[in-house]
What we know:
The complex is a heterodimer.
Chain A: E1 3-6, E2 11-14, E3 19-21, E4 23-26, E5 32-38, E6 44-50, E7 56-59, E8 62-65, E9 75-77, E10 86-93, E11 99-101, E12 105-110
Chain B: E1 4-7, E2 10-13, E3 19-25, E4 32-38, E5 44-51, E6 57-58, E7 67-73, E8 76-81, E9 90-98, E10 106-109, E11 113-117
Parallel strand pairs in B: 2-11
Antiparallel strand pairs in B: 1-3, 3-8, 4-5, 4-9, 5-6, 7-8, 9-10, 9-11
Amino acid sequence: GNSVTQMEGPVTLSEEAFLTINCTYTATGYPSLFWYVQYPGEGLQLLLKATKADDKGSNKGFEATYRKETTSFHLEKGSVQVSDSAVYFCALTSLTQKLVFGQGTRLTINP
Amino acid sequence: GAVVSQHPSWVICKSGTSVKIECRSLDFQATTMFWYRQFPKQSLMLMATSNEGSKATYEQGVEKDKFLINHASLTLSTLTVTSAHPEDSSFYICSASLPGQGSYNEQFFGPGTRLTVL
């Protein structure tokens, strides 16, 4: 079946540091890939997505590139802010439209 | 736009009682809603998919008599945890699907409901 594996957290960085959260997947066919963010006390929000190989999703300074050859969709940001502190989920969906989530990575940014 | 609400945000109940959780799409009509369960420090696990006016489709291992889902209208789905026990304590999250372009219908998530069964 489909699955998503994320880098384990928690991750703690200083403000303006470079962020990478690794995500790899296993799927049949050609899944769409997503990063969701969950801020404290809030529901999940779609951060970015990519629907085919080599697509780059980007939003709020975050980027992720759909790499079919390495089955990866790593999340990156060049300079993080305190307000980026949240839990980040990598996810995929395929023909069934069901989302399969990774285990989540808690990110804390210190001023 | 595309806001999903859940009520209540948290609930504490005694073992053996039933608890109903509501999920509403506030500004759009959702033909499909999803119910997830999230254990502490773990990922979201899909419990069931509900379509308006039809029976919910449950994931393997989810007891449909335990977790009753009713999708009565295009803006409301309810999850009832029947005869709750402490092991049902968890964070329950719903999402509502908004038909979009292409092959993916984006899901919009509610803020979740924390259930504690004593």
